[in-house]
Fold this sequence. Notes:
Elements: E1 3-7, H1 11-23, E2 27-31, H2 34-43, E3 48-52, H3 60-70, E4 76-80, H4 85-93, E5 98-101, H5 106-136, H6 144-149
Parallel strand pairs: 1-2, 1-3, 3-4, 4-5
Amino acid sequence: MATILIIDDERAIRKTLTEILGFEGYKIEEAADGEEGLKKFQGATYDVVLCDIKMPKVDGLEFLSKATAINPDVPIIMISGHGTIETAVEAVKKGAFDFISKPPDLNRLLITIRNAIDKNKLVKEAKVLKRRVSKVQEMIGESAAIKMIK
């Protein structure tokens, strides 16, 4: 099953999300702030990241920028209780998969996570297929006719 990293400075939110998503069959890892989350993100592979925006040390938008530089294929879902439309737009422009306000609507959260995981699988499959196709269609030869075709 998919592995999800939850980054939130509120322990109650982390525990609630861990219980809910664990019950759904996901493997969960937690981080108490953006700095700890960044260390975990660099050291492991995750299918999805849930990240709060307002946190001490490294905030969610800074985490988002650094994480997308490390691995742009991992969907990062931003969550915030202080979110505005401007914050949501900024997060999506910086590469967030989606923005969910706290307290999260459980159905919306689960659907967003499933969509993010599906997108991640499709991106991986597309990369594999592109590598296979590029190897299959290699043309060999140096004659004038082959050079013209190339």
